[in-house]
Amino acid sequence: xxxxxxxxxxxxxxxxxxxxxxxxxxxxxxxxxxxxxxxxxxxxxxxxxxxxxxxxxxxxxxxxxxxxxxxxxxxxxxxxxxxxxxxxxxxxxxxxxxxxxxxxxxxxxxxxxxxxxxxxxxxxxxxxxxxxxxxxxxxxxxxxxxxxxxxxxxxxxxxxxxxxxxx
Amino acid sequence: xxxxxxxxxxxxxxxxxxxxxxxxxxxxxxxxxxxxxxxxxxxxxxxxxxxxxxxxxxxxxxxxxxxxxxxxxxxxxxxxxxxxxxxxxxxxxxxxxxxxxxxxxxxxxxxxxxxxxxxxxxxxxxxxxxxxxxxxxxxxxxxxxxxxxxxxxxxxxxxxxxxxxxxxxxxxxxxxxxxxxxxxxxxxxxxxxxxxxxxxxxxxxxxxxxxxxxxxxxxxxxxxxxxxxxxxxxxxxxxxxxxxxxxxxxxxxxxxxxxxxxxxxxxxxxxxxxxxxxxxxxxxxxxxxxxxxxxxxxxxxxxxxxxxxxxxxxxxxxxxxxxxxxxxxxxxxxxxxxxxxxxxxxxxxxxxxxxxxxxxxxxxxxxxxxxxxxxxxxxxxxxxxxxxxxxxxxxxxxxxxxxxxxxxxxxxxxxxxxxxxxxxxxxxxxxxxxxxxxxxxxxxxxxxxxxxxxxxxxxxxxxxxxxxxxxxxxxxxxxxxxxxxxxxxxxxxxxxxxxxxxxxxxxxxxxxxxxxxxxxxxxxxxxxxxxxxxxxxxxxxxxxxxxxxxxxxxxxxxxxxxxxxxxxxxxxxxxxxxxxxxxxxxxxxxxxxxxxxxxxxxxxxxxxxxxxxxxxxxxxxxxxxxxxxxxxxxxxxxxxxxxxxxxxxxxxxxxxxxxxxxxxxxxxxxxxxxxxxxxxxxxxxxxxxxxxxxxxxxxxxxxxxxxxxxxxxxxxxxxxxxxxxxxxxxxxxxxxxxxxxxxxxxxxxxxxxxxxxxxxxxxxxxxxxxxxxxxxxxxxxxxxxxxxxxxxxxxxxxxxxxxxxxxxxxxxxxx
Lengths: 167, 815
Ligand code: FES
Ligand code: FES
Known about the structure:
- The complex is a heterodimer of chains A (167) and B (815).
- Chain A is of the alpha+beta class and 167 residues long.
- Chain A has 2 domains: 3-86, Ubiquitin-like (UB roll); 96-163, [2Fe-2S]-binding domain (DNA polymerase, domain 1).
- Chain A is 31% helix and 15% strand.
- Chain A is built from 5 helices and 5 strands.
- Chain A has a 5-stranded mixed β-sheet, sandwiched between helices.
- In chain A, strand 1 and strand 2 form a beta hairpin.
- Chain A is globular and about 50 Å long.
- Chain B has 815 residues and is of the alpha+beta class.
- Among the domains of chain B are: 43-145 and 224-285, Aldehyde Oxidoreductase, domain 3 (Alpha-Beta Complex), CATH 3.90.1170; 424-477 and 660-815, 2-Layer Sandwich (Aldehyde Oxidoreductase, domain 4), CATH 3.30.365.10; 504-641, 2-Layer Sandwich (Aldehyde Oxidoreductase, domain 4), CATH 3.30.365.
- In chain B, 28% of the residues lie in helices and 23% in strands.
- In chain B, helix 20 (700-720) packs across helix 21.
- In chain B, 59% of the residues are buried.
- At the A-B interface, helix 2, helix 3, helix 4 and helix 5 of A face helix 1 and helix 20 of B.
- One FE2/S2 (inorganic) cluster (FES) sits between chains A (107-113, 144-147) and B (203, 256, 528).
């Protein structure tokens, strides 16, 4: 997003491993991680629903931890490993979490889905066999306006079964 | 967490009518691209060389604009353009409004709500566009604001001086001898109820990417408008261009709308297109969440109700008198019919012959209204249920018995309301009995949430539990012709004839591809309802081919007929009716093409299961073989499904009188188990029971999702959500920390049971399913709260029932 500008804008280097690939860029320090991923890395599966840390649509994993990328500057996480929804499946096979959301009808408009899938990945890494309370604690930072959440519980249980502690 | 419908992903056997997919929970075809992050929402659409816009928004609720100084902004090295009202006036037109109002896409002379756009700036990226926007210097002369309907009604400060009043519209409908009923009845129960300003708040905000092409002097505008084929005039008239020069495109997925994107976003389409026209480069504008909440043209109804109920000692309801004042915000917009849609369910599930219905719509310094799921019906249902609750208490009768004895009975179906809409089918008393039974069996028993011992023990802790079941209705598939009554005088409505009624059909088109697959084109945008999946299910059955051989895309607004689209819970009915018709139409085209090829009579050719065969002979062609013989000039086949109410003489009276007709009336009987903590004022819904009947179910999982999602919206409206304003007209909910959406922690377990009473009025027997839960939940939650608080004698009368409001009530009335 910097190449068109003509004014003097401060620049910083950032280097990340994004979905397994090393990425290095020179960016404005105020660039949010969400915008960096969406615009520099073309990973538009990172959704922005509020840009103030409530909706969780922008959730990505930074060194395995769920992070709201709209509240994080890209330069803050330089040298980290970032995973987005695009990194979950390669080609035509869905990751078991994605498959579980599909089978349980846990998405409608889908705008929240990337965030829920990534939060679920972090949740299952910590609690491979979660109960309702752990699911609530793990997903209370994500808002879905469409589903009413019950299929999302079902999807998490199904994914936990399918993964049986693996990923 | 809920008891949901059985799942099925494998191909089932065909039933007697040849249906293999319709009625099953076929997995959604939309999901794969969404789950892998590949799908492009409007936020993700990027065109080569695209510039980015930001808006300068007014900080005041009401002010005269004295000067817009753009010089500092224009001298910023990255500024490409600053657009102001003066530029728009010079080059473009006003946006059409309702009731004779027109608006400029940027505030002109005066700002009428905080956050109203005053200027647009364009730069290389959004970050720098916002820097430049900060440099636009606007001076204002601040005026007194009008912040509620009561202040609006005294006309001391006028929103639009030229009209001389803040009352935008009023009307009164009297059915039967209302005064007589109130004089004769044993009791008259009166109540006043308030409905806070809420809206759909989808996860995706509104936006547009516009691309002006100077060679053809025309525009391509990518947007996430709902009903983009219908309300495109908001964009092309603003530009001063004919419809065919402004092609609106919708991505295959919109990130939620719930009615709101009917009006929200049109302004952005127009502004982005103007900027693109000026710069001859693509321009993108997507609002951020704070802009959405503060001033995204997306709030909805805010009503003050006054009601009276005439009821005899034996519980017979003799008459109902309802009037409300609605706070429209600064301009009347397209969704005005929200004020009269409740006429289609005038007495909701109850048999009341004598009714007065009155509304007054006021202009205030708030965000203009758009449509929202329920479209005015939830407020009406809320007011009536609250009144019944009060009546039962005043009469000292059992509230559920009072409801039961006044329900419309199945032997009265089809039931014509005094306001002339007709309920098609259903058994309301059985639904109420069943939900009572479910609650008794599961909760009013040992160990249940309403186990009398538990209820007693909880009260000791200050926690009061209760539930109040009711049957509520979802009118669906409206003929929206009645919307034009707002622009007509009483005499004009009087002179209206059946021939004047516009039909609002749903259109589909299809093409046979050279490889024998079929592409179906929708003329409606989709925001999570699974339209593609449902159309594929119906078309696969209609054509006897595999779902894998059908795909679905979207026509742009210039290609599509300008009729309507997804709204008013109409798509289950309309798309299914259109799909059935389209499949028949395709079969006829296939048979004709084969007959021409073989030189025989089309009557001797039969299409079935993906092939045409010549009767009596061995000739047969698969769809792939046939493709080269099918005329590929335009679409292979098109079909427009007329709204069923339009075709049934039963609805003629209502149509001629410009009264709302909704031929599919879905219903539900809901019982939330609520717990009120009187110490904190917090309301917890412990479990939510719902019995839902939307006629023939096309895809059980999709219907389940609509029902549960709608209930969650109703919970938000009843307990959490509100666009409140302070006395200076400043919005108090501009972040999602203030406008609280239901999260996984406050949406309860839902127990949903389905019944299927097919509609006799629709082709497939389907009725709408998208709004019922919202309509129901936001009525039965407050009545259940009053039921829970009955031992304390405290009643709530305003939604949302926030801890704050509830504590104030408890303080005033108990402590
Ligand atoms: S976009 Fe980051 S939390 Fe909403
Ligand atoms: S699927 Fe639409 S917000 Fe979750």
